[in-house]
């Protein structure tokens, strides 16, 4: 960087006073100060962006490592469950797993947790979601707790008038 001391700044100020003149020097000094401030802010923004990118790369690496570890654990668990299920199936049927290589229970199809508990259309049911909210939350957020039929709603909100008259009067 440039080493600017007090003596060098005083020399630059004296030359600027002579070259620019005392009338325009304050305006030029303000303009130079604003430009230097903008440059510093721009440099700080670039530094912050670079540090964010570095942190983001580190987080991506950590995420991939975590996902790999989770996949390894999942594979291990599935392998162990399959082995124990095969051993249990063999124990119940009285056969040896070496004679039935590749055979799996239930005729070759073992449903996973996701497929067994997923709704048919792929979306959660509205009623399931509404029933999952506690009553205190519904009351706090003015969510209707019960449904009212159209006739009951009309009766409830009809203004009270005189005695009821029949149609044939």
Q: Would you give an account of this structure?
A:
The protein is mostly helical and 169 residues long. The chain has a domain of 118 residues. The N and C termini lie far apart (104 Å). About 5% of the residues have low confidence.
List the topology elements.
Blueprint: H1 6-20, H2 25-93, H3 113-117, H4 126-131, H5 135-140, H6 150-157
Keywords: Cell inner membrane, Cell membrane, Membrane, Protein transport, Translocation, Transmembrane, Transmembrane helix, Transport
GO molecular function, one term: protein transmembrane transporter activity
Biased composition (Polar residues): 92-102
Total strands: 0
Mean pLDDT: 79
List low-confidence stretches. Answer: 99-106
Residue share in β-strands: under 5%
Task: Return the structural class.
Answer: mainly alpha
Give Rg in angstroms. 39 Å
Pfam family, one: TatA_B_E
GO biological process, one term: protein transport by the Tat complex
Biased composition (Polar residues): 92-102
Membrane topology: Single-pass membrane protein
